[in-house]
Amino acid sequence: MTALEIAAAVRSGERSALSVVDEHLARIIESDREIGAFNLVLADEARSTATGIDQAVARGEPVGPLAGVPVALKDNLCTRGVPTTCSSRMLEGWRPPYDATVVQRLRAAGAITVGKTNLDEFAMGSSTENSAFGPTRNPHDTRRVPGGSSGGSAAAVAAGFASLALGSDTGGSIRQPAALCGVVGLKPTYGAVSRYGLVAFASSLDQIGPLASTVADAAACYEAISGHDPHDSTSIDGSRDPVVAGLGRGVDGLRVGVLAELCADSALVGGATGLDGVTAVEGVAPDVTARVDAAATALEAAGATISVVSVPSAVLGLSAYYLIAPAEASSNLARYDGVRYGLRVEAANAAEMNVATRTAGFGAEVKRRIMLGTYALSAGYYDAFYGKALRVRTLMLREFAAAYADVDVLLGPTAPTTAFELGAKTADPLVMYLNDVCTIPSNLTGHPAVSVPFGCGDDGLPVGVQLMGPALSEPMLLRAAAVLEQAALPGGGAL
After folding, report:
1. Is residue 482 in a domain?
2. Do residues 207 and 260 share a domain?
3. Residue tagged active-site, from 74, 116, 187, 425
4. CB 412 within 8 A of CB 288
5. In-domain check, residue 391
């Protein structure tokens, strides 16, 4: 059953929330030892919450649009009294004194948290291999990665451990694992969902969003968690257009642009006129590009108009991101000093204690990014590195705004390849960073984007295609995503 089907069945009394939770917990017990999606399973708490929902249903009380739906939370979202580790030894055993706003909103909608999911340490990674507690494996092939950094959340949905999950997306960390695990992943507009209670990685880029097995489930989760929050100074005020109610409107007349820089091998891009000299990003596999072409064909068959669009600065996104994000991480992670909370390694004095604590508490990738960010912010290098990256970000905002004057949404691949084998890219950080090349532009611009499963690559593993739009265009993006989802079904004509 989908999340919306579960909620409807629980509200009507057709199913009990407790039976739904027990069913999902049984799957976790049976299979998660092999997959490693969870850092912590909250079985007793989930059953207690489910019992409360069933009692409310029996009394005829309202129980929310996601009543009884099992949800998994990425372990960088604060949960009051429940360990929140960010998959780091630095925060092992830390119990926050408050809930993240999104956690509160899911609870108010009737959802039931079944556990906290594994991630790359402090959300720094693309494969969920950087966790201090071991890697997560892809449910489609346990020899392969689930993507990252929200790999635990994506794997939990793909394996049927939870109907919905929350992840965070700083450079593609919702969408890339969604693509590799064959689920739907939405990165909302920056500020559309409160970041209060999200342990910060890069504050100008981080965004919380849903992972789900269907577009409608993702849309319902987004509706539940979005909206203004006075606790988050970057939260966008004002009303929102409904999302779930408009999913069936189709794409007739929608202007879709295939983003040339992400689709070098696309037949559509190769046949386009006026695009001489386009520089494409490296590493996008032909079988992935073929799925993008098929998605464009499906959208056109549903009434959309298709064109090819160039955004030259898109190829600069990876370089700009890996200066901006580490610089912000260097500042944000300075708080882990052995004094205020988390790990403390005793030493002769405060300075030595600080060094010993950070040496023991942080993994190699986190240390690498702290050093890179500190260097980029240092005197004499700020303008040459960090300042230049900010100028590239401004250029990208301008060029994407120009593109959205001509088209409504952009289409491209989510990840350059299907899921790769565990350990295949850990030896070379630069090769690993290339996994984010297609998703980073939406983080730098703050715009929304959604990854939708759309068939398989030559190896039989899932491929996700990505729809990108201007700020607060989630209703339009999800409407187009619903069309692709339908076309990808057996008999839908696109596969």
Report:
1. yes
2. no
3. 74
4. no
5. no
Total count of residues recorded for the chain: 495
Last residue of a domain, one of 347, 362, 384: 384
- Residue 390: inside a domain: no
Please say if 173 is a catalytic residue: yes
Is there a single domain that holds both residue 305 and residue 337? no
User: Is residue 398 helix, strand or coil?
Assistant: helix
Residue 438: domain span: 247-312+396-488
Contact 400, 95 (CB under 8 A): no
Q: Which of 149, 163, 194, 235 is catalytic?
A: 149
Per-residue confidence band for 135, with pLDDT thresholds at 50, 70 and 90:
very high
Question: In this structure, are 205 and 173 located in the same domain?
Answer: yes
Q: Which long-range contacts (CB under 8 A, 24 or more apart) does 236-244 make?
A: 236/189, 236/191, 236/192, 236/472, 240/192, 240/472, 241/472, 241/475, 242/475, 243/219, 243/474, 243/475, 243/478, 244/216, 244/219, 244/220
Does residue 156 form part of some domain?
Answer: yes
Output the domain CATH number for residue 134.
Answer: 3.90.1300.10
pLDDT digits (tens, 9 = 90+) for 359-392: 999 999 999 999 999 999 998 899 999 999 999 9
Where residue 490 falls among pLDDT bands split at 50, 70, 90?
confident
Q: Does residue 345 sit in the same domain as residue 268?
A: no
Short-list 373, 288, 282, CA closest to 334? 373
The pLDDT tens digits of the residues spanning 233-286 come to 999 998 888 899 999 999 999 999 999 999 988 888 877 766 777 888 989 999
With 80 as the cut, is the pLDDT of residue 401 above it? yes
Residues 111, 43: one domain? yes
Q: Which of 150, 168, 173, 213 is catalytic?
A: 173
Quick one: 462 and 366 in the same domain? no
Number of domains the chain contains: 3
More confident position, 381 or 218: 218
* Residue 442 is among the residues annotated as catalytic for this protein: no
Q: Is 149 a catalytic site residue? A: yes
Mean pLDDT across 395-404: 98
